[in-house]
Amino acid sequence: MALFTPTFSLKSLTSTTSQRRRFGHSNWSFTARATVAVDAPSSSASDRGGAAPKLLLEVKDLSAVIADSKQPILKGVNLTVHEGEVHTVMGKNGSGKSTFAKVLVGHPDYEITGGSITYKGQDLVQMEPEERATAGLFMSFQSPVAIPGVSNIDFLNMAYNARRRKLGLPELGPIEFYGYVAPKLELVNMKIDLLNRNVNEGFSGGERKRNEILQLAVLGADLAILDEIDSGLDVDALRDVAKAVNRILTPKNSILMITHYLRLLEFIKPTYIHIMENGRIVKTGDISLAETLEREGYKAIA
Amino acid sequence: MATTNSMSISTLNSYYLPKSRTPPPRRSAYKPPRTTTTTVFAQPPTLAILSDPHVLRLAETLEDSIAASSSAASPPLPLQKLRDISSQSLLSTPWPSRKDELFRFTDTSFIKNSEIQPIPPSEMQSIASLSILGDTVFPNLAIVDGYLVDSLSNSSGLPNGVFVGPLSRLNSEDIMKRVSKYVSSFQGDLFWSLNGVGAPDVIVVYVPEGCKVENPLHLRLFSFNGSDKDSKTLPISNPRVLVLVEKGGEIGIVEEYSGGEGNDKCYWTNSVMEIVIGDGAKVSHSYVQSQSLGAAHVKWTSVRQESTSVYELIEVSTGGKLSRHNVHVQQVGPDTVTELSTFHLSIGDQLQDLHSKLVLDHPRGVSRQLHKCIVAHSLGQAVFDGNVQVNRDAQQTDAGQLTRSLLLEPRATVNVKPNLQIIADDVKCSHGAAISDLEENQLFYFQARGIDLQSARRALIFSFAAEVVQCFPDASVQKKVESLIRKLLDPALP
Fold first, then answer.
1. B192 vs B7, B189, B311, B329, CA distance in Å?
2. I need a surface site. Which of A10, A13, B27, B298 has the fewest CB within 10 A?
3. Which of A3, A130, A198 is closest, CB to CB, to B451?
4. B460 CB within 8 Å of a chain A CB
């Protein structure tokens, strides 16, 4: 008797978005424990001396479909992010949150069918994914793919050098780079042997999330898009990850984060909360919106 | 009844080749099947039908060459036995055609249409002084064109009781007895038998009971004689190695094939390694083949695993115009562990073929097989036939097999035939085959971190191979193979 069990696997992920908000009174209120990172962040927006923060990202009437099936996912998303703002997108499963994040970084599974995205004054849609990344756009993947055969440190080194090239800086060799990257591990509370393991291969859910944040720490970002960095994490791991994010980013960095839970927002304080529904941002507010949501569910804000 | 100790093909040729073609008489039903030399002679005409004149001529050429080069002293008994068995089987083995299942995807006409020239041993000494092989810190044997070259070898530093050397120099009667038992205890195909007829000696690696050899033994097989591309001749070498590890012993073998300057020299390496692993013993076998792109490389690895023994094979093959590796693993006791990790690379007009067969006849065997190949040329081809037999008594077997092929050029070809035959009913078997370009979501992950598509593709292609290369237990081998692959792939990639 012969037995055949061919294995194939296909994966596709979908999700949601946000809307716009003006008023650049950015409210960067992390506890300033930031000993690391680039410049030490000052703890409140008032230190900024009133100058209106710069426009970073402007999304207008963005609509997008799944490239294969042409199924519409985003149906007119509007969102504006200024330097230093923390935006949170919440919404039911399938409302388009993750799709929005992926469209911003140029994921090939989606096709933009309308609207515009302007990032630092440039038309983001015309940029290749790697150009978006070197321009300071970073997305942490909800479930990052494993890459057997490529060690974590090689991967980070390649990515870091790509960014250095873009900035016209000399690239770092493996030894110099090791010196640069080793201290960053402490930030995400990971062991050094993580560097020699293959990218995400055999990583637990928590390790994958930490690894994403490690990449953020190494590469830096002007706009960090954090797609459910809290999913699958226990309380301690969540605190580690959130703490790391707070230490990595400065008051000039902006965050767009997607989450289902208030818990994360206790660690990373949002300037705005957006509720996404059926491919659109239907409501925008402050932290109280998330609190209502946590208490009463989506019905309460419908 | 006619009996001879050493049957010779030429004797038989004089009987059966064109001049004497008598019609075969019917074989009487009660006669025993022809299994001995004796019967062969008693039944000549039957053979005439099955014999392939081309094969017989080739066998005769090899035999003549051995006769001419060997000294007057008769060969050690096991070697004689090997030659007899091999000669005999060649009498009834035709040259394989594409109609044979085992050669369905593998065209051997390149070898068949070439004039095969045995390489005499005298030519060896002249190159003995050349440092063609580079240095190695490990105990090693240099085997050039199938002949052991003492001046380039160094087998010092091995533990007491370990024997590494040619059978003709083996003095221990006990070891000789053990060797006799296993030499050619298995029957392969035509190429296996041609090797048996053409092998000048058998290199024996003997590890006594309980002996753990710390450093890997490096077998460096080098093809020195080669013909030019258009000459249509193939100098042939027939290296043969027997590895015998007694109960509880352990050894690592690094078997490395290379060949001279230039990448278009033509030669034919027709190699056989037999490995016998005793109870609880372990053999880690690294095999690297980077011969000329004009060469034919045919290789047999036959492994016999006794209870609780471990066999690991890590292979990387990149060379040869026609390269075929036949791996046969036979389990002869329970609780064995078998791990096969192989990587084949076709960067030119070349064929890389792996035929593996794993036969499990006892309970609780564990096997893991991973075969990967990259075809990076529109005329390149890769073949994989991976057979796993889980027979009636092999209950609670845990057998896994996975093959992945990467086709990087239009018209690049891969033929894969993974197959499991399961008779036992309490087993865990898995099997998967994937043929693809690179994974989109992996490429995107690189891009999302700022790495351009071309660099990402390159990294992923190397990583595809790395999964196997990382399995080499010896770091220096790993490094060497990594740079070999890099050197081959870099110009081949767009």
1. 18, 5, 21, 15
2. A10
3. A130
4. yes
* A147 vs B448, B455, B463: nearest CB: B463
Q: CB-based contact (8 Å) between B466 and chain A?
A: yes
Could you tell me the CA-to-CA distances from A270 to A26, A90, A287 in Å, in that order?
A: 10, 12, 7
pLDDT, tens digit, 9 for 90 and up, residues B131-162: 555 666 788 999 999 999 888 888 888 999 99
Count of domains for chain A: 1
Per DSSP, the residues of A63-132 read EEEETTT--EEEEEEEEEEETT-EEEEEE-TTSSHHHHHHHHHT-TTEEEEEEEEEETTEEGGGS-HHHH
Q: Is residue A124 part of a domain?
A: yes
In a domain, A153, yes or no: yes
Helices within B325-474 (DSSP H only): 440-448, 453-469
Helices B453-469 and B475-492, packing angle to 10 deg = 150
pLDDT above 90 for B309: yes
Question: Which positions 35-94 of A are in contact with B (Cβ < 8 Å)?
Answer: none
B350-398 per-position pLDDT tens digit: 999 999 999 999 999 999 999 999 999 999 999 999 999 999 999 999 9
DSSP structure string for A203-237: --HHHHHHHHHHHHHHH--SEEEEESTTTT--HHH
In a domain, A4, yes or no: no
All structural domains of chain B with their residue ranges:
51-332, 440-494
| pTM of this structure | 0.76
Does the predicted interface ipTM exceed a cut of 0.90?
no
Q: Token digits for B355?
A: 């035929």
A167–chain B Cβ distance below 8 A for any pair: no
A1 in a structural domain: no
Q: Are A105 and A134 in contact (CB under 8 A)?
A: no
Cα distance from B457 to chain A (closest Cα, Å)?
A: 12
Tell me the residue type at B19: K
Question: Looking at residue A285, which CATH number applies to its domain?
Answer: 3.40.50.300
User: How many Å apart are CA B296 and CA B237, to the nearest integer?
Assistant: 11
In this structure, the number of other CB atoms found within 10 A of the CB of residue B32 comes to 9
The C-alpha atoms of residue A246 and residue B235 are separated, in whole angstroms, by 69
For B19, other C-beta atoms within 10 Å of its C-beta total 8
The answer to whether A77 and A18 are in contact (CB under 8 A) is yes
Q: By CA distance, what is A107's nearest residue in B?
A: B444
